[in-house]
Amino acid sequence: MIKAKKSLGQNFLIDEKILEKIVNFIDIKNKTILEIGPGTGNLTNYIFKKKPKKIFVIEKDDLLAEKLREKYPNNLQIINDDVLKVNENSLFDEKAIVFGNLPYNISTEILSRWIVNLKDNFWFEALILMFQKEVADRIIANYNNSNYGRLSILANWKLNIIKISDIKPNSFRPKPKVDSSLLFFTPKENFYKIKNPKNLEKITKIFFNNRRKMIKKPYNQIFNGDLRVLEKLKLNLNLRPQNLTYETYYKLTDEYEKLNC
């Protein structure tokens, strides 16, 4: 039996009902598939049964990558590397459907990196990704919610997000100490145009640096007290960061870019 490595955040999904639920959520026949962190190949087996056109996997663990080569000598394109170092935009000739039981320790970094690097022509058709439930709750949170924050605003900028289900620890080996959630992402046809996603990250970082305080201080820090932006966006400076909608943060970023770019 292969032992999971805590350093790589490995928790192998072993629940057959959940594995089947994942591959049945979207039609993948004749599609290009990318699986992140296939581990021992439990989900990979179910993906193969659905007869996709191609399957790429990214597996950082050298031993697991070698085991996958032995198990699938001809049918799997294995990228033995860190997912954070892979240029996903250059992997495929067509849009992929992505599956991932993401390592909890880098899951937000993976998702944020993908969103920041997104071009207008998306490299994926859909994402079906597993997160720690606490992180998933932050991803799908809307304004006026205590879970709402920088990750919510970034994730919902270019993506539609649906929660598929919560998953208990006994569906994994070894059992994590927390519940997990499975999320489904698809590209938005229309999204707010921002020149540089790094500016959205900057704006939200400044606003949420102290989420319990009113937005007057971060607003003045960014716009130097400029009343024109305040009046244009009809902002109430007595509100707190979590009271502003996704759209408001996109508009704030746009105004910041007009002044500074």
Description of the structure:
It is a single chain. 37% of the residues lie in helices and 19% in strands. The protein is an alpha/beta fold and 261 residues long. It has two domains: 182 residues, Rossmann fold (3-Layer(aba) Sandwich), CATH 3.40.50.150; 64 residues, Helicase, Ruva Protein, domain 3, CATH 1.10.8.100. The strands form two sheets. Strands 4-3-2-5-6-9-7 form a seven-stranded mixed β-sheet. Helix 4 links the parallel strand 5 and strand 6. Helix 1 crosses helix 2, helix 4 packs across helix 6 and helix 6 crosses helix 10. It is elongated. About 2% of the residues have low confidence.
In short:
The chain has 261 residues and is α/β, with parallel strands linked by helices. The chain has helices spanning 16-24, 42-49, 62-71, 107-117, 133-140, 150-158, 197-207, 216-223, 227-233, 246-260; strands spanning 12-13, 32-36, 54-58, 77-79, 96-101, 124-132, 159-167, 172-173, 180-187. The protein is elongated and about 65 Å long.
